[in-house]
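re: that complex we talked abt at group meeting.

here r the seqs, copy pasted straight from the sheet so there may be weird spacing, ignore it
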Amino acid sequence: MTKAPSFVRFATLALVLALLGVVSAQSTTALRVASTASVTTWDPSLSFSTEAVYMANIYEPLLWANATGSTEKFTPALATSWETSADGLAWTFHLREGVKFHDGESLDADAVVRSIDRHRTIGGAAFIWAPVSDVVAVDDMTVRFDLAYPAPLDLIAASLYGAWIVSPAALDAAEADEGYFEAGIGAGTGPYTLAEYQPDAEVVLSAFGDYWGGWADAGHFQNVVVSIVSDQVLQEQMLLAGEVDLALSLPPTSYASISADPRYAVQTVVTPFNYVGFLNTVRAPLDDVRVRQAISYAVPYDDIIAVGAEGLGTQGRGPVPQGIYPWSEEVPQYHQDLDKARQLLAEAGHEGGGFTLRLTYAAENAIERAFAPVLADALGEIGIQVEIEPLLFNQQWAIAKADPAEAQDIFLLLYWPTYSDAGSDNLWSMFHSSDVPFFNLSYWRNSVFDDLVDRAIELTGTDRATAQALYVDAMTLLVNDAAGLYFLDAGAWYAIPTYLSGFEYNINYPFATFFYPIRLAN
Amino acid sequence: MRRGGSGVTGAGWRMFVGGLAVGHTGDREPTGREGREGQDDLAPPRSTWQRALSVLKRDPLALFGICCVVLLIVVAAFAPKLAPYPAMGEGRSSVSTRVSAPSKEFVLGTDRLGRDVLSRIIYGARPALIAPLIVVLLAVAIGAPLGAIAGLMGGWVDEAIMRVCDLFLAFPSLLLAMAIVALQGPSLTNAVIALAVSWWPWYTRLVRGVALSLRHQAFVEAARALGASTPKIMLRHILPNSITPILVQASLDVGTVILATTGLAFIGLGSQPPAADWGLMIEDGRALLRTAWWTSTFPGLAIFLAVLSFNLVGDALRDLFDPKEYR
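got the structure back, here u go
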């Protein structure tokens, strides 16, 4: 073999491969996706983690909650209409006719009752059904939820966790064999069936022929091949090389360069991921509200957004993420003002700072890791030394829950609501008094706040406007008392190749991507 | 041998200085090779010094390695004086200058937190140098006496010690270190302890080999006949005679351990931010590789140079103590 032909051969091979890449990048049969989501369980009741990406395409709930900005709050899924009694204690759902499960069973009231009952008893997110005392099949196609106290059952029924409707045949099988779903069984009504699963490697979804939404319109993908890739940088490389059509987790640092690339339309979105710092309110010096306020004034909010989220985020207004009920623009914010911070410190008897605080964060969280030093430097400006202690989240949390008097001074936390009600979740979980700390890691106690939140939770189901007003009062009180630091509501971004259309991010389902609406453009 | 051995720690330095200062004498010879052959006929047995010189003459790479190691030591020792921005070297962020390309102001650019990459590399020389030295010293301190005991005593003591060694050697050292760090929590100190724990068996094996070859030598037998106790034989005969192989092995290991500590930092199990650590810097800049190559390229080069130079020094030491070189 001489040199020249081998070079020519190599060049031809490269060319052919490149062409193949271009052609396969636009194949109509399969949508190729890279996602970080590994599967912790295929059981639709136990699911409470990243597998939601797949679940949301295999299963359906009674209702879907709509993305921010929609006129209607909900889209009917397996329920076509629903009503609530005047006292908010009975919710009735009318089911969609002619819906088939993947295993051929038909949807009826009994399937709904059995699914919800299973979620309520063994579910990972069973607590969302706490207000429900009973689920009753009124007739073949009507289900009534009886509540012990008023609650926003429409939001609960639209939850990403613990609200899927499952085939009765599969429920029978799961009763006989606990691990029935784990072999990779999907038994929902959604547009895609679970065709193949290789743990931590690949999930293949195939079109379900009898899907009630139908496949008549052209352009839906018949198959979705999801490669599980935990590394964002690798996902980016796969996207740029045309190995996948969609990469669901791209590194924030690549935002600018990919935005400038004409092959992609970049969508920036608001997520419900909220970064909070808990200040230890039971121990000096943070038991003094003036010291806490001083710290709140010293936080470099803009720098944190720049460094932590590459500018894709907004400063938090309390612990409720933007775009999620009961977020409100009326809730006050702190802005960095070092003079004011120093003055407050002096008033509290700490002229020039001179004390040290211990800050813990979850070492596995890249955003906290990026911004913790910036926060520490800013507190250094007002004379407060910060010892940064990265811990694995489970260790960080265990220390915080053990003994508040011995725990950290500042606890960084990423939090998001289980379903789209941050009042009963974020506000209650993070700041309502409790004797044993769980997520209220400021160890803050305020009976006025507790009362406002408790009343608002009860009213959310029946009188959302009043509930919202109560929540605003509660959050204002919370922010003024500076029990926590509200760094940012993280944004995110997606790079959609120009040959695809229909991708839509829904803040109510932050871990899900819906593949059915995605099509080839033209 | 003992005297020569214990003096060797300093020999590296002197070799370097000597190489520059005594260079002229070498020039007088027509070529190195001829000159050496000429010397062999007349000259008395050559001293360690002379051999060091000739190793360096034949091997400019070794000279390069020594220069780099010395440079590294100087940089680590005088980091606050040498770094253009000492505060940034220590971790002070500067969000307004984040991710700037190399320029007059920041010769090697800045990272995600706006810190000068050059200053960070200079400060990063400290953990890069000190951590591996401690790891190797600890490993020698644990491993060498155990090896001497095993080799000298033989029997069940030998068996017991060596089987424990095998147990440790059965796991890849980095994996073992990862497991230990995962249990103890990620920090540089824990990474150092973990690596030392997984590194000592190599020295046990090495010293045991020396001890086995020496235990029936005449001078050991003589010492025994004179009533010397086992610890005394170990201290006076076995360990001193092991210093050369240990030194060669250790200088080669320092390079490997630099890779291990920076590797642990890279995967989040070693140094923690805001500490300056080359592995941490590469990890920090990994996502920026496409857009801001300087954030991880330069710390990568620093690791490359450090590991390379320690390996070159190790090779040179091996040549220096190679019995074939004694003429």
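couple things i noticed - Confidence is low (pLDDT under 50) at residues 1-5, 19-26 of chain A. The longest strand of chain A covers residues 264-279.
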